[in-house]
């Protein structure tokens, strides 16, 4: 049986088409992922959240001890103390400690967000990092804070144990000095 002319002509054309399609798909896939950060880098991009979304996140941490550090790129004290949150996370995550940060800068402020991402990366803050996407008047009222630094601590039962304000810095004790004294009992508590 002989080969038909159409088969001879279509076979290379079909093969070329398949190779071309595969090449195009690979190129598109590579391009679409090129703009995405590496998995570790994703930690450093604060996720915009509303107060309700933040409350949902808090509820999902029940059974663990949760520390949420409220900070701002322009807050010197916040940035000086932030490395202590990272160290607590590294030291106690296996014991059930969850660390998170909430940037209070506006997510539409590109300069502040770029600086915040760089800061989180430098600190190796590989935990949940958020940025509030509500107006200051809203988050101030709903969180009961005027501005940073503020640290919320939740027990394993999901209830607020302590809210530290900058005015809590008495006798040379910083927020994290006080928090570190409170933490061992919270971590020992049963879920």
Provide the fold topology:
Layout (H helix, E strand, L loop, with lengths): L4 H30 L4 H4 L4 E3 L1 H10 L4 E7 L4 H17 L4 E7 L6 H14 L4 E5 L3 H8 L6 E5 L5 E5 L10 H14 L3
Parallel strand pairs: 1-4, 2-3, 3-4
Antiparallel strand pairs: 2-5, 5-6
Helix pairs in contact: 4-7
Any overview of this molecule?
It is a single chain. This protein is of the alpha/beta class and 191 residues long. It folds into 2 domains: 5-36; 40-188, Glutaredoxin (3-Layer(aba) Sandwich), CATH 3.40.30.10. The protein is 51% helix and 17% strand. The chain is built from 7 helices and 6 strands, in the order ααβαβαβαβαββα. The chain has a 6-stranded mixed sheet. Helix 4 (76-92) packs parallel to helix 7 (175-188). Residues 13-38 have low confidence and may be disordered.
Our measurement of the CA-to-CA distance between the termini, rounded to an integer number of angstroms, reads 78 Å
CATH superfamily placement of the largest domain: Glutaredoxin
How much helix is in the residues?
40-55%
Q: What is the molecular shape?
A: globular
Percent of residues in β-strands? 15-25%
Give a quick account of the main beta sheet: strands, pairing sense, barrel closure: 6 strands, mixed
Strand order of the largest sheet: 1-4-3-2-5-6
CATH topology group of the largest domain: Glutaredoxin
SSE string, helices as H and strands as E: HHEHEHEHEHEEH
Mean pLDDT: 82
Number of strands: 6
């Amino acid at each position: 049986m002989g080969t038909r002319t159409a088969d001879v002509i279509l076979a290379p054309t079909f093969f070329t088409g398949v190779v071309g399609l595969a090449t195009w798909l690979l190129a598109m896939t590579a391009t679409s992922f090129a703009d995405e950060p590496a998995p570790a880098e994703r930690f450093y991009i604060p996720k915009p959240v509303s107060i309700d979304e933040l409350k949902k996140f808090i509820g999902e941490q029940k059974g663990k001890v949760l520390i949420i550090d409220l900070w701002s790129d322009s807050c010197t004290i916040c940035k000086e103390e932030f490395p202590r949150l990272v160290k607590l996370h590294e030291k106690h995550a296996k014991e059930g400690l969850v660390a998170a940060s909430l940037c209070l800068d506006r997510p539409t402020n590109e300069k502040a967000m770029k600086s915040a991402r760089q800061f989180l990366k430098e600190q190796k803050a590989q935990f949940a990092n958020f940025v509030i996407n509500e107006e200051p008047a809203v988050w101030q009222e709903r969180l009961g804070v005027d501005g940073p630094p503020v640290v919320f601590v939740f027990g394993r039962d999901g209830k607020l144990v302590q809210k530290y304000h900058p005015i809590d810095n008495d006798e040379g004790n910083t927020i994290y000095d006080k928090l570190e004294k409170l933490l061992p009992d919270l971590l020992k508590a049963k879920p």
